[in-house]
Amino acid sequence: MSSFHVIVVGAGVFGTWIAWCLRETGARVTVIEAYEPGHSRSSSGDESRIIRCGYGPDAVYSRFALRSLQVWREWAASPPLRRMLAFFHPCGVLWLAGADPSYVEATRRTLEDGNYPLEVLDCAALQARFPQLRTDDVPVALLEPDCGVVMARRAVAAGAAALRRHGVDIVQRRVAPVDRRSGPLGALKLADGGEVGGEAFVFACGAWLPRVFPTLLTGIIRPTRQVVMYFGTPAGDDRFGPTRLPAWIDFEAGIYGTPDLEGRGVKVGIDRHGPPLDPDTTDRVIDPESLATARAWLARRVPDMADAPLVESRVCQYENTSNGDFLIDRHPDHENVWIVGGGSGHGFKHGPAIGEYVAGLVNGTVGAEPRFALAGKAQAAQRTVY
Asked: How far apart are CA 211 and CA 219, in angstroms?
């Protein structure tokens, strides 16, 4: 594939890993990105993302997550990167079951059947292990001890820097909408009137996908406004750091978060889908309702943080598909075009595995996963893969 030129649109976690894996196959790769990699408008742009393998009965995502975890850890230990500030924190990930424990129990079965590292904690063991948390109403919890948190913005920037060191051009331009006329795409039109030619094209531009393919993807990928908040911990108190507190998913509450990493504060994120968002023009200011929701959760679960100051906040975005599954498929009208998106709030952790998978699709060495197909997504009922 040494003469095969692939254009990758988007330099978030999907785009950078796809470009890296295509380059590893010998392809010549050019990346087109409207902003800088890891920019604040991107779905990859917050400080941290949880890496865990639990997905209820959805074993395909568990396999992708495990493969990605292996690669994230390898990258974190590689000589060029280990001299940087750490971008993987192996603090573990804790699942808290609620009144309906069915999803957590399905997660347990999938992880145990696949021999994933897992600890099962009953209520007493959970309270003894993590006394910072108020969990007297949690019947059972799952701890994935080998998982943790990737520093997202830093990881994407490191990936982009690695691409540049290995000869991949990252061109800061905005692409124009793609014409739906059938046949191979010969050149990518840019918003400024220019063109970039290539043999294959991969569009991994997240919340911007419906703008690039308006007649195909409008309503199938829906960007929503998602708020995350960071609360300052008490001075001299290490109970909320990564050596004593894992990342967590409070499934019933729809809240996830991370311990205090690098002094940024305890992160509280709201997983429920927010209102529609324009990724270019929406103001990134949090709303009072989200802050109240986060404080109410802290008062319930982390009472010693109930009055903690809000030290940082982000308005990020999900780009949701109608059923929560990824969209990774060949364009129905252009046989040399692939669409990669629909992270639906859980995509970041899968970056390395997505890169390997898409590189295999482009060079014809892997088969397509039906769960990721475009067909059926417009009609599917809304559900959260988590």
From this structure: 11
Domains, the chain, ordered by start? 5-372 (3.30.9.10)
Cα(345)–Cα(283) distance, rounded to whole angstroms? Answer: 20
More confident residue, 128 or 381: 128
Residue type at 354? I
Tokens 């690669």, residue located: 71
First to last CA, the chain: 36
Q: What would the two tokens of residue 45 be?
A: 């742009």
**What residues form DSSP beta bridges with 230?**
267, 312
User: Is the model's pLDDT at 276 over the cut of 50?
Assistant: yes
303: left (phi over 0), alpha (psi -120 to 50) or beta: alpha
CA–CA gap between residue 184 and residue 362 (Å, rounded):
14
CB 229 within 8 A of CB 309: no
| Contact in structure between 51 and 349 (CB atoms under 8 Å) | yes
User: Does residue 347 contact residue 36 with C-beta atoms inside 8 Å?
Assistant: no
pLDDT in tens, 301-347: 999 999 999 999 999 999 999 889 999 999 999 999 999 999 999 99
The pLDDT score that the predictor gives to residue 179 is: 85
